[in-house]
Amino acid sequence: MQLLLDLGNSRLKAVLYQNGQFQQLAFDSVAGLLKLPVTAAYLSSVATEQKTTELLQGLQAASFPTTQLHTEASAFGLINSYVEPQRLGVDRWLAMLGAYRSYPAARQLIVDAGTAVTFDWLEENRHLGGWILPGLQLQQQALLAQTARIHKAQQLMPNLAPGCSTSAGVENGALAAIIGAIRLGWQTTPAQQLLLTGGDAELLKSYLPDLPVLVDPFLLFKGIAQYIDN
Ligand SMILES: Nc1ncnc2c1ncn2[C@@H]1O[C@H](COP(=O)(O)OP(=O)(O)OP(=O)(O)O)[C@@H](O)[C@H]1O
Ligand SMILES: CC(C)(CO)[C@@H](O)C(=O)NCCC(=O)O
Ligand SMILES: [K+]
């Protein structure tokens, strides 16, 4: 059994991997992970050096070793399109590896909706490139921080209706930007399948009923599993 870790810009996610199965872990702190009966841990981090080092140091007290994974120019037959391959976020690299391993399709569009929303097009074993947008929360935070009169009085459920308050306008606008970008991406660089992952995947899916959407919360972890099983 292995422990798979995804340190994002907002939070840490942990998953247990055993016999090809993934199980999301609920935990309060890194200390809660130290006593797990695992043989090894694998880390994907897009957070700062400092946060990454802190996590790795916290894990040194564990009985199992931790390996940090990094983006590569190519691995397991998958080819990174970046001019400077190592600059592609390791979360994107791993999600693509997961998609490549689990969902064969001539062309797929992978959208990871977290702090940022990333788009990556995969054509068989080749990354075509992607887009990076601010996520649902980050868009709203940017507006609040950079304008004098945009305040958020309440947290609503975002939808695509015209908003009748600042809060609704900002929330619905953020959702519209992401749904609009997905539809535009789907039009300009068509694919057979739209793979959604990240904290906002289910919300986005509900606004894309006409597209062949598949939600997989474990996509990045399936990419990590590629490194374990090979
Ligand atoms: N329990 C939760 N905690 C935080 N955000 C959540 C939660 N459930 C759903 N969300 C939604 O998920 C989004 C964050 O996505 P996710 O958790 O995939 O990313 P993250 O860990 O915050 O950052 P990163 O993309 O860097 O991994 C937020 O926009 C929020 O709307
Ligand atoms: C875009 C994010 C923040 C998404 O988590 C991450 O993948 C990242 O920091 N990437 C580095 C920049 C890039 O992928 O081009
Ligand atoms: K992420």
Automatic annotation (TrEMBL):
Residues engaged in binding substrate: 82, 89-92, 166
SUPFAM superfamilies per record: Actin-like ATPase domain
EC numbers for this chain: 2.7.1.33
Subcellular location: Cytoplasm
Record field: transmembrane: none
Organism taxonomic ancestry: Bacteria, Pseudomonadati, Pseudomonadota, Gammaproteobacteria, Alteromonadales
Keyword Ribonucleoprotein: no
Record's cofactor remark: A monovalent cation. Ammonium or potassium.
Family label: Belongs to the type III pantothenate kinase family.
GO function term, MF aspect, one: ATP binding
Binding positions (K(+)): 112
GO biological process, one term: coenzyme A biosynthetic process
Residues binding ATP, per UniProt: 6-13, 115
Organism field: Alishewanella agri BL06
Signal peptide interval: none
Function, as annotated: Catalyzes the phosphorylation of pantothenate (Pan), the first step in CoA biosynthesis.
Subunit relationships: Homodimer.
The name this protein goes by in its record: Type III pantothenate kinase
